[in-house]
């Protein structure tokens, strides 16, 4: 019997398959986990998103954090707190620049017998002159005066008297020039005695003065006084001149 020509091939294939099955059945051990890798780099910034819709509060209690973020209506002003302690006095600063002049104040008004008067300020002054050649009658008020100054008219030329309207301190004086002996007296309701001034002879120049404190209604005047003079002097008709002055020094409170 002749042998088959394909027999060696079959034997070889069978041995090959047997060897492969033997390798598959042999299992190896599990491997160990590897180490973590290094951190990756940050990514590029993303695109800005669209604006969201306004938020709404759901019904129910609201958390305090939400209320703090919401702006409420302005409340009423609280009561003033207690005054704090006084601080230390600071250093004196440098002088400031001069201020502008203030506006003029209103005109003052004087007191007229306890009431306000329409006259502005406290004014009272007079100067009167007598240029008549006749001798003034003895023990009578000297009259026939002509105003030189009379503000605001407290000297009465018709009676020859100064009538005080503003209480205060006044100064009165007179001067006379005559070609005959002459005596003049300053008389007032506030004086107990007359203030007599005399000069004798020819070409006489006589003067006298006094300071008086007057109240409203008091009077001051001049009188012609006979003091050791001859009676015929009253008939003298030579030139005679008398000037009588008075003014307010200051008002009395």
Automatic annotation (TrEMBL):
<comment type="subunit">
    <text>Core component of the complement C1 complex, a calcium-dependent complex composed of 1 molecule of the C1Q subcomplex, 2 molecules of C1R and 2 molecules of C1S. The C1Q subcomplex is composed 18 subunits: 3 chains of C1QA, C1QB, and C1QC trimerize to form 6 collagen-like triple helices connected to six globular ligand-recognition modules (C1q domain). Interacts with CR1 (via Sushi 24 and Sushi 25 domains). Interacts (via C-terminus) with CD33; this interaction activates CD33 inhibitory motifs.</text>
</comment>
<keyword id="KW-0399">Innate immunity</keyword>
<dbReference type="InterPro" id="IPR008160">
    <property type="entry name" value="Collagen"/>
</dbReference>
<dbReference type="InterPro" id="IPR050392">
    <property type="entry name" value="Collagen/C1q_domain"/>
</dbReference>
<dbReference type="GO" id="GO:0045087">
    <property type="term" value="P:innate immune response"/>
</dbReference>
<keyword id="KW-0391">Immunity</keyword>
<keyword id="KW-0379">Hydroxylation</keyword>
<dbReference type="GO" id="GO:0009986">
    <property type="term" value="C:cell surface"/>
</dbReference>
<keyword id="KW-1015">Disulfide bond</keyword>
<feature type="compositionally biased region" description="Basic and acidic residues">
    <location>
        <begin position="70"/>
        <end position="80"/>
    </location>
</feature>
<dbReference type="InterPro" id="IPR001073">
    <property type="entry name" value="C1q_dom"/>
</dbReference>
<keyword id="KW-0677">Repeat</keyword>
<dbReference type="Pfam" id="PF01391">
    <property type="entry name" value="Collagen"/>
</dbReference>
<keyword id="KW-0732">Signal</keyword>
<keyword id="KW-0272">Extracellular matrix</keyword>
<dbReference type="GO" id="GO:0005581">
    <property type="term" value="C:collagen trimer"/>
</dbReference>
<dbReference type="GO" id="GO:0006958">
    <property type="term" value="P:complement activation, classical pathway"/>
</dbReference>
<protein>
    <recommendedName>
        <fullName>Complement C1q subcomponent subunit A</fullName>
    </recommendedName>
</protein>
<feature type="signal peptide">
    <location>
        <begin position="1"/>
        <end position="22"/>
    </location>
</feature>
<keyword id="KW-0325">Glycoprotein</keyword>
<feature type="domain" description="C1q">
    <location>
        <begin position="119"/>
        <end position="253"/>
    </location>
</feature>
<dbReference type="Pfam" id="PF00386">
    <property type="entry name" value="C1q"/>
</dbReference>
<feature type="region of interest" description="Disordered">
    <location>
        <begin position="23"/>
        <end position="121"/>
    </location>
</feature>
<dbReference type="InterPro" id="IPR008983">
    <property type="entry name" value="Tumour_necrosis_fac-like_dom"/>
</dbReference>
<keyword id="KW-0964">Secreted</keyword>
<keyword id="KW-0180">Complement pathway</keyword>
């Amino acid at each position: 019997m002749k042998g088959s020509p394909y027999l060696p091939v079959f034997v070889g294939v069978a041995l090959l398959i047997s060897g492969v099955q033997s390798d598959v059945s042999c299992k190896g051990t599990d491997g160990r986990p590897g180490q973590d890798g290094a951190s990756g780099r940050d990514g590029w910034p993303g695109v800005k998103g669209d604006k969201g819709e306004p938020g709404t509060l759901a019904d129910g209690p609201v958390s305090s954090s939400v209320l703090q973020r919401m702006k409420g209506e302005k409340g009423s002003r609280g009561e003033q707190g207690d005054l704090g302690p006084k601080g230390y006095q600071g250093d004196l600063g440098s002088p400031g620049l001069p201020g502008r002049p203030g506006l003029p104040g209103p005109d003052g008004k004087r007191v007229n017998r306890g009431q306000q008067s329409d006259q502005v300020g406290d004014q009272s002054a007079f100067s009167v002159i007598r240029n008549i050649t006749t001798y003034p009658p003895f023990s009578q008020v000297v009259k026939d005066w002509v105003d030189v100054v009379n503000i605001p008219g407290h000297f009465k030329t018709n009676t020859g008297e100064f009538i005080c309207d503003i209480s205060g301190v006044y100064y009165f004086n007179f001067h006379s020039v005559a070609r005959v002996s002459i005596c003049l007296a300053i008389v007032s309701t506030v004086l107990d005695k007359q203030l007599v001034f005399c000069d004798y002879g020819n070409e006489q120049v006589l003067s006298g003065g006094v300071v008086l404190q007057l109240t409203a209604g008091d009077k001051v005047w001049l009188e012609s006084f006979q003091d050791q003079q001859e009676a015929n002097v009253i008939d003298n008709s030579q030139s005679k001149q008398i000037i009588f002055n008075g003014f307010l020094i200051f008002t009395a409170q």
